[in-house]
Amino acid sequence: MERLFIPVLLGTGRADNKSVNAAKFVYSELSKVEGVSTKLFEAGNMGYSVTVPPWGKGGADEKETAWKEAMTKADGLVIVVPEYNHGYPGELKLVLDSLYKEYEKKAVTVCGVSSGGFGGTRVVDHIKPVLIELKMVPTRGALYFSKVEESFDENGNMKDPKTAEFAKDVFDELVWLAEALKDKKG
Hints:
The protein is 35% helix and 16% strand. The chain is α/β, with parallel strands linked by helices. It has a single domain, classed as Rossmann fold (3-Layer(aba) Sandwich).
């Protein structure tokens, strides 16, 4: 029986991005967590090209979208976000800003991705204040995908088996927090 729904959001729409492999890995590993169902979303496929005002001002918050429906029933969220020029992609910000009340009191884990050796640590630190402003509750733990071009094989499979162990620990924290917050919404 699925007790929690936790979507995964790939926070980029860049053509030929390598972050998609990290997002698919995260989705696959989260799908293995007992009692959790998930769905993979991609910020670049959501059609937001301008910032829309949420909460009753004629923006995306008033429209029924697959993203709104998912976040309305979600118990948490995992964001896989590449670090572009020390920040996060604009399309991710547009998606996050499209809703408000649907995020409140939901656990969120951020997974940083980079082509360099730090695995997106800066982007994880930069996006957490935005998530807190949206009234989400970030986990302390995070996943970091360094040198993403080298981390996956030609079929998109993770080369380092230890990464799955790290993912399990991070998802254990996310599930614990999501369960703790489940009855606190609204």
